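Chapter summary example.
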Amino acid sequence: MTWLEAMAKIGCGKTPTQVRMTVKQILDLAGRSEFDGSNYPGKKWFQLFKKRHPNLKLARPGKLEICRAMCSKQKLETFFNQLEEICQRRGIKSASQIFNCDESGFSLQHKSNGNVLVSREMRHAYKLTNSSKDQITCLACICKYHLMSSHL
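The structure predicted for these 152 residues follows.
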């Protein structure tokens, strides 16, 4: 996995300008003189860079709160073990007794200001963000069992 792929995977994908600036910093630290002495590659260099690395693509990142990014397999297993324990304790034996309620917030903040490089295999690109309260909230509640039985 390349540095760019690893950064995108953790929600810190790099824009084309950031990639070009990183190249400049590497060349400056190495004491090399490239790109007419400025060490700053142009847009054409970036286009050729993308061609040399077909495993990378540009994608517009969606926002992902840090607390959601920190979810792990162990946390999910703990959740479902606790859910099973609660169902047993409360005598819930049927899926028709279980309702799912989910809250979704739609941010009123402006969109991301640019695309970032990610692995071609990544379905979604994310950018870590703070959890701002400037949003519209939707609360949905549904029982999957009742939905399925109404279509039978």
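To summarize the output: The longest strand covers residues 100-107.
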